[in-house]
Amino acid sequence: MTHRPPRSSLLRCALTLALCALASPAARAWGSLLLIDPPPRQASFAAGPSVWILPAYAGSSRSRTWLVPGLDYESPGGFFASTDSGLGWNLSRRADLQAGLRLWPVFGRRASDAPPGIGGVPGRLALEGFVNVQLAPALLLQTGLLAGAGPRRDASRFEIGLTSGLPIGADLLGIGIAASWSNRAGARADFGVTTEQAAASRLAAFDAPAGWQDRSLTLSFEHRLAPHWRLDAQWIGARLIGAATRSPLLQSASQSGATLTLWHEF
User: Of 112, 160, 164, 220, which has fewest CB within 10 angstroms of its CB?
Assistant: First the structure.
């Protein structure tokens, strides 16, 4: 996530490694689009400290902050393992097309963060298919279809977006817009209230339907500090839409998150 611009390190969202993500308490209603470079000629590896500020869960008005290790590995064969992009395979060798599969964490909701009587939602390691097409030298169409999330592993989500990049001297500014659609199982997991939960929490029961769930804006910035050092910053602002805004669980329709990572390239 080599075309220039945009840079993948600039525009990918920071998340945990796929194998570690299920232990994280963070939750996001947005931001599953993937952006990666064509496979490198030689294997590449980078690591460094990363600070994340993310919503406590989808629809929450509270955020949580973590200091975590950032890791990023890409192989010439298309395999990647990264805190930015999960664990997967880019099957394309073209600079203007990325397509493949990856394991991607879908964070749940901790029971302690939810209103009393609502309970938690388990995190899942879901499978996502992605296809990105470069429409112009600085414009990329991104799509992702994710399946296998939710308490019964029947939740799915489709996301589509446009990403562009603007060089500022030796630095890069990335701008992206996106929207996501969730099936009924996914909407119910994030925003639904069953009759049992309603009785325990005194909230109104709510059967969330399938539909468009949010739209988001992403701003990213990459600054080269030295030949093997760079600083990446990202801010994501999302607005919940549709049935999500009618959920009794909703605390805030405005969701935001930010990451700051200092990378050392080996």
Answer: 112
